[in-house]
Amino acid sequence: MTRGEIFEVIKANIGRIVEGAAGKTVTEDMSMKDVGADSLEIVEVVSRSMKELRLRVPRTELSSAKDLKDLLDIFEKAAAQVKPQS
Amino acid sequence: VDANIDQLLRQARRAHLVPEAEGPGILMTRASVEQALPHRGASLLIDAVTHHDAAQATLVGRYEIDGAALDGHFPGSPIWPGVMQVEAIGQAGALVAALAPGAETDDGPPMLTEIAGAHFLHPVRPGAPVEIVARVYEDGLFFLIVGQCLQAGRICSVAAVRGLRGA
Fold it and tell me: Which chain A residues are closer than 8 Å to B165 by Cβ?
């Protein structure tokens, strides 16, 4: 799974969950607050993205993310640790 | 899980979530509950736990209605407020989450984030203990609690509440 693929999943969930965010340009250097997400919407986007990507990340680690780049770094690292299914 | 909340609530209105909800044994006392939940005093709405199944993520708590919660609600016709019933179901679900295997490693107590639905079928009045039943469903970083308040075996209310672990 590439970083780009992970970002597409996150961006799709931002568009679906964050009120008024559909169609807005979202880049790595932005935070979800920049597109108007409230605290619950942020957790919802992260939770649904993790489910879709089949990733497990402790909440303590997630809470260190300040922007989407940080979140992508965390997801990319977690994805690298997932063993491919044989 | 979201799409099923209405269906789960409808089912909970018709049948006990835990068939053995009237079990005789006390598994946890109020003091034990206080070790797992941060609520204290009149805000703690579970006096004892009579059923807990970690595999099914179900729990039944028992509560004797506190007189203070009935003050003025209503004069001459006391009814335990519906909001207290929803809170009690939330506490029972939070207790399931707190007692789940691995919960000790979480970074804080569960926090409720949403009342997804609540139906009040019969008034809950003082004079008989309330059985508070909760079943918890995992939903990513969230968990969904579907619960019931029973009195003398009758389903008086049902509620669905979402929460977040270690908020």
Answer: 59
3-state secondary structure at position B98: helix
Residue B14: pLDDT over 60: yes
> Among A24, A46, A42, A23, which residue's Cα sits nearest to residue A32?
A42
- Nearest Cα to B131, choosing from B51, B68, B66? B51
Q: CB contact, 8 Å: B162 with chain A?
A: no
Q: Inter-chain contact A46–B141, Cβ cutoff 8 Å?
A: yes
B31–A contact, CB cutoff 8 A: no
The pLDDT, as a whole number, for residue B66 is 84
Q: How far is it, in rounded angstroms, from Cα B11 to Cα B158? A: 10
Q: How much is the average pLDDT of B30-51?
A: 95
Weakest-pLDDT range from A30-39, B42-51, B128-137, B157-166 = B157-166
Q: How many pairs of residues across A and B have Cβ atoms under 8 Å apart?
A: 25
Strand partners, B112: B163
Query: By C-alpha distance, which of B163, B160, B58 is closest to B117?
Result: B160
This prediction has a pTM of: 0.85
Find the helix packing angle between A68-81 and A3-17, rounded to 10°.
130
Nearest to B140 among A40, A50, A60 (CB): A50
Q: DSSP E strands: which ranges in chain B?
A: 48-53, 58-63, 111-120, 130-139, 142-151, 154-164
Residues of B with Cβ-Cβ distance to A48 under 8 angstroms: 140
Length of chain B: 167
What are A6-46's pLDDT values in tens digits? 999 999 999 999 999 999 999 999 999 999 999 999 999 99
